[in-house]
């Protein structure tokens, strides 16, 4: 029994283990509950399995029993094999490839239907317009409504949330089947509408959902799926699968998912990602071959650029220009997207109206966008009739549209003629396309439907690249290369570079370069692409957060900003400069009142547990919810009833044996008896830590030598000696407690009399205490010492020392996904650093409440000398002064006075 | 003064900070020394700078002083900018590109010279042979001798060592200028010899050397280069640059370096790697263009495969076969390589002989290899006259060599005809090439010269792929595709797949796929390559460690094995099952004798510091070297002289004031005085923790209440009260100590008399103590309590709890690069886990001493049920029994007895 108890406690430790983890309280409860249920399920299952095999044996005893046994064994072996990682990854890849292909197929059908409707009504422009506009509005409205009703968590890209989840935060309801359904159907409808939205972000989320659900499903077979850290690893692999099967880009998928979701990455998971993403991409492309869409497996947007001379060295400046411009463009996109959200949120009238009619906003945005792209209308100037995919294919075309600067020589084949307009130059079409699509995409991605922004940005980038490429081609009709052969400029190559650069700038990733190679099936432009992507990133990162980080801030998810490049001061700021010195803590020997006060005044998720207020030696940390449970247990009705019962019995005994002497005195004695009885009971229940039962006085105020002794050597066998000691040093604990709680002496001594009478009559205690009595009883209960036995304590919360640099702290926080860390000095707790402080320190003195909208060029306006530097030195001074007063392991005069007591 | 002292101590903490780090002792000293020197240098520099600007002002007071000030400011600004990361990375990329290009150029010249010699002597076969053989023998012997003399650290690939360094281990002399020179020149000579060696591994090392040297050089300008964690980050980027500039493969370089050197990777560094590697690859290729070798920037081994139909779906099984076969081949290569090393080490006669004539082994191996490749000899059957680069170019050729299975239709252009032999089929040539090169490469990479194995393996893989491809082409002359166009099979594509698969299998990486794309400039075979690489890795990883891990084990570098795929039991083993329970520790109040004993009996690098043997609360860890320093300080000559001086003064005083009474008594009193004087002196020197001066008795044996009080409330002002307390409880500490050290009472009391006489005469104390007296004095000194003030204590060593799973422990160890972690239970130290235990637990019960040679298929012979599982449960039982005896925070009866004293 005792062993079980400790085992269970240890198991509980394991859950909060190693390092504090930011958890939304409900999520934790849900998880624990789920784990318990699963455990029970496992037991039931194993029992049923055993009985089944026994049945089989019974049944076939006469015939070939051996054969049957063999079958059962094979079955068992197969089931055990199901636990292997690779089976899970293959299943995940397979499912995601199917989902991706089906979604693509459905989207294609939707888009075809729109075209067919539009084409069939070419007799009447108004009807055409109506068809062109109504169709997307209906689809988007349905998508928005459907996700709103089924699972609002499915809205948006999902990458910001996955980033948060992979940091160790539990987001409620984010990985459920409902969300999966809502996301898949919502996404199909949203993309089927032809709006400038992407499928890549949502696919990361869908893959994670898939992994989570598959994990749950597989846990029916094997035990391994119940391990939390394994599930996190599988989620990381799933993110890679999501991107991989969306673009048929396994390598780019893995890298993109790493860059977008992690700050530290386990090479272990990289493996898993590669395996699953490759399998998924393979199946995804094989499905296309089987469906006779393709002859063999090739790239999604295959290009046919010249291999022998892909580009000239002298073209590199143009590529660099694309990179830098894309950097600014990407920052602008993020800014614009956030500005729109901000605007709608701030305008209270609009907001109120939209909140009431939730579907109005999507419908309005869709109406606006589709009106502007109406092909016979403004759409004719911006290739409005092309779908996103068609636009991209034409933009990556290896022919030059504007040879010799004349749009007339345009080689009209397939969809490419959409870019040609009889009156307008192809350059104008491209510029219009870029400008219009830019704000349209920024606006469209704010619609509350499942959607990503990667693909629209990618297309805009390709268009921008094409524009530069066509300009170059017009400028150098015979190419730049001077000696020998003539190599004309390939504008399609510029489009590839532009696509990679702009999408890289918006997402702050370099792996878009790899995605581009895998999408186009050509790697010949590797150096221009890499240079442009790196330049774009350098520019964009210095101006704005990435789109995903921006959404994280908008949604107020917990996050840790990245350390920028070359911020030297980050190495010079120390933890002591940023830590909070006024740590909320509880002592091992505190009473429930202290607990109550601490819970009332602070709002921290976890509280430090120190040995005593005097030594401040950090023993561990306890979650707030645990303390709340402790408190409610102490003050709860069951305990009160128990108290009444105890008292009744004590009174009975007293009535039968003790003669009526000074009643005041007896009451006190009875009280004492009750208390000790309770504590003995508890000690038999969980014998590990009952020695911590100590005199009922607030330990925070008057620590004594005896206190410390009893903390350090708690015992289960020596309760009596402990009590004796207590009596020795604190003559009457009860009265002392009453004294400290001045004013309440009288009622406390008066109360039991009346209650006693009612209890003597009834052995099955009734709760007949008045409100006032309950309050009194609670007061009394609050004075008792806390029993931490049934409380989950994280025994090794993460510790830093005061000289740890900000840089190192950031590393540790992001490595371990910490929410907070305690700062100790040789065991003594001296401060705490949480994500908030770290965030503040990294982002300067600006307090980030919700979103901080900074115009794209704001950082250039920042003065060169950072304020944090001076702040730090000032804090240093302060701390030096402070330290001279309270050195670690220091001895205060008052303490020595205490000792001489 | 006091503030400075603590600051300095805090700084010292910072160095050993956050988590224990495996450091070779000398390395630490060297580093500290270097840091100190640098700091001094910085001071000197800033002073000189100030004076310089002052001088300038003086000089130009008359003329345009403002202009001068402006110049100085600009200069300062530029110098401060030098600290930026990107400048460092660009410089690194530039330097490495230049080094790579120069090395390549030199190698090309060397190889040309050999060909020229060989070609010029075509009149006489014997002379030809002599020239063919002598040339590489001389070069290799020179390379081996040169590196042996200049820097033996430069031998080999360098990747294993970089992996170890990036784990946080300091390897001595590994990143010095000498090593750089030895590596570059040695590598050039080794590769110039035409032996099957690679340049990629050494380039990782060269890039790291370059980064380290550049860091040192840049630290002359800015302060940021002194930060250790930054340097580690820069080394990680440098590894990427190394691969990137070697193959002009920035993406593959970054990924390969991540896979090969890290287990956890910061996305931050990934950025840096991309930036530097791209720049480096760019410059590397631009140099080729400027040198008129190339027309524009293209891939290193450009292929020209068909774009529209790269491969048929039905060819995939063939690709899969290449992958699986490469997996076995890769494992065999690693095994063979290690077997050769083992064989030479084991054969003591050979070993002895070779150790004497160090250059004989390289010469012999070179002689053997070059004899066999002699073109007119056996070389004619294995394309012996082609250099490595030429072989690769021909193998990746997009023409089919064996059309219709007949070698006669061979399209002889360029070097391709080397594969053709009048008598022998091209298949035989390929098979011979593969078999011969296989063992030659495995043998050649054991030569003690700077060399890698990547490129030879890559070429062998390409040959194997080609073989399969040619076979397929012979089997299906018109391709497999049935409907429509005829697409013949492209054997070059198979060569690409084979190269990626075999090199991936040997190095256990998937990024070879990316390297292959970047090397060939074509990504059309992405799916076959990925599938083959993943299959090869799956096979190879289940059979053998990677080549680099194998070398790490051969060299006995500290390492942590990877957790394999799907080893479920890893989630079930707990830290308590593998930890060492018998932890070596020292207590805060121990005496020097305990220190002495602990140092004598154990060989651990760091020791735990606990509050007391009773409470076992972990306070921190101390390095062994620190303790040794403490001990030698306590027993050193300066202290003895000081002791003599003190005693002389005390005697003087006594002679002048005190009359001669009972001499025995007075001596004792004098002794006491001396002791207290010393302790007071120390307390004024560093006032933080003198309260820990306690009665001179071994705290391990008899902890008392008083002990604890004085530990918890140490004081600098209350020394006297502390002494009073001590006197109160331990009436005569000196005699008590003497008693505990029984037998030594008499000499101790006799000794001072004689010495006293000699001192009274001479105030400048002479060390005239006899050996016996010194021994006695040392005995006495050993009884004193340890003063930890001047000792670097790591106040936050990493802690685990007993229920932490092996999986989590592995993660934490590899994340933080730990060497050991303490296992605590609510503050109490209960065990320690080091890399060794973890390694044992992961690798099963096998003790890995040096190399464990396992035949490639050994793991298939392992029984399915792992022994660790049963071991774990047994240990669990044991632990449960153990725990019931010593619970955390438990109270022993003896303690309560103590309390009643």
TrEMBL record, chains A, B:
<dbReference type="GO" id="GO:0032591">
    <property type="term" value="C:dendritic spine membrane"/>
</dbReference>
<feature type="transmembrane region" description="Helical">
    <location>
        <begin position="86"/>
        <end position="109"/>
    </location>
</feature>
<feature type="transmembrane region" description="Helical">
    <location>
        <begin position="234"/>
        <end position="258"/>
    </location>
</feature>
<keyword id="KW-0407">Ion channel</keyword>
<feature type="transmembrane region" description="Helical">
    <location>
        <begin position="359"/>
        <end position="378"/>
    </location>
</feature>
<feature type="compositionally biased region" description="Polar residues">
    <location>
        <begin position="680"/>
        <end position="693"/>
    </location>
</feature>
<keyword id="KW-0677">Repeat</keyword>
<keyword id="KW-0628">Postsynaptic cell membrane</keyword>
<keyword id="KW-0770">Synapse</keyword>
<keyword id="KW-0868">Chloride</keyword>
<keyword id="KW-0472">Membrane</keyword>
<keyword id="KW-0869">Chloride channel</keyword>
<keyword id="KW-0597">Phosphoprotein</keyword>
<feature type="domain" description="4Fe-4S ferredoxin-type">
    <location>
        <begin position="55"/>
        <end position="84"/>
    </location>
</feature>
<keyword id="KW-0851">Voltage-gated channel</keyword>
<dbReference type="InterPro" id="IPR050970">
    <property type="entry name" value="Cl_channel_volt-gated"/>
</dbReference>
<comment type="subunit">
    <text>Homodimer. Interacts with auxiliary subunit HEPACAM.</text>
</comment>
<dbReference type="InterPro" id="IPR001807">
    <property type="entry name" value="ClC"/>
</dbReference>
<dbReference type="GO" id="GO:0030424">
    <property type="term" value="C:axon"/>
</dbReference>
<protein>
    <recommendedName>
        <fullName>Chloride channel protein 2</fullName>
    </recommendedName>
</protein>
<dbReference type="InterPro" id="IPR046342">
    <property type="entry name" value="CBS_dom_sf"/>
</dbReference>
<feature type="transmembrane region" description="Helical">
    <location>
        <begin position="203"/>
        <end position="222"/>
    </location>
</feature>
<keyword id="KW-0966">Cell projection</keyword>
<dbReference type="InterPro" id="IPR014743">
    <property type="entry name" value="Cl-channel_core"/>
</dbReference>
<dbReference type="Pfam" id="PF00654">
    <property type="entry name" value="Voltage_CLC"/>
</dbReference>
<dbReference type="InterPro" id="IPR017896">
    <property type="entry name" value="4Fe4S_Fe-S-bd"/>
</dbReference>
<feature type="transmembrane region" description="Helical">
    <location>
        <begin position="426"/>
        <end position="447"/>
    </location>
</feature>
<feature type="transmembrane region" description="Helical">
    <location>
        <begin position="270"/>
        <end position="290"/>
    </location>
</feature>
<feature type="region of interest" description="Disordered">
    <location>
        <begin position="680"/>
        <end position="704"/>
    </location>
</feature>
<keyword id="KW-1003">Cell membrane</keyword>
<keyword id="KW-0406">Ion transport</keyword>
<dbReference type="GO" id="GO:0016323">
    <property type="term" value="C:basolateral plasma membrane"/>
</dbReference>
<feature type="transmembrane region" description="Helical">
    <location>
        <begin position="316"/>
        <end position="338"/>
    </location>
</feature>
<feature type="transmembrane region" description="Helical">
    <location>
        <begin position="454"/>
        <end position="476"/>
    </location>
</feature>
<dbReference type="GO" id="GO:0034707">
    <property type="term" value="C:chloride channel complex"/>
</dbReference>
<keyword id="KW-0812">Transmembrane</keyword>
<keyword id="KW-0813">Transport</keyword>
<keyword id="KW-0129">CBS domain</keyword>
<comment type="similarity">
    <text>Belongs to the chloride channel (TC 2.A.49) family. ClC-2/CLCN2 subfamily.</text>
</comment>
<feature type="transmembrane region" description="Helical">
    <location>
        <begin position="129"/>
        <end position="151"/>
    </location>
</feature>
<dbReference type="GO" id="GO:0005247">
    <property type="term" value="F:voltage-gated chloride channel activity"/>
</dbReference>
<dbReference type="InterPro" id="IPR002244">
    <property type="entry name" value="Cl-channel-2"/>
</dbReference>
